[in-house]
Amino acid sequence: MDIMKPIAVIGTNAWGGKLYGKAIRGNYVEDDVIMDAMRTAKECDMAIYDLARDYGLGKAQKMIGNFGTQDIIISAKYTPFTHYKKGCVRKSLMKDLSDFKRDYVDIYWLHLPTDIREHLEEIIELYNEGKIKHIGISNFTLEECKLSKSILDAHHIPLYGVQNHYSIICREWEKNGLLDWCKENNILFWGWAVLEEGLLVDPRVKKRSPMKFTFNGKVRKLAPVYKVMIKVADRHGIKVPQVAMAFCASKGVIPMCGCRKPEQVKDLADAASIRLTMGEIRKLEESADRANVSIMGADLFRPFVLKEKRKG
Question: Which CATH architecture group holds 9-304?
Answer without folding.
Answer: Alpha-Beta Barrel (3.20)
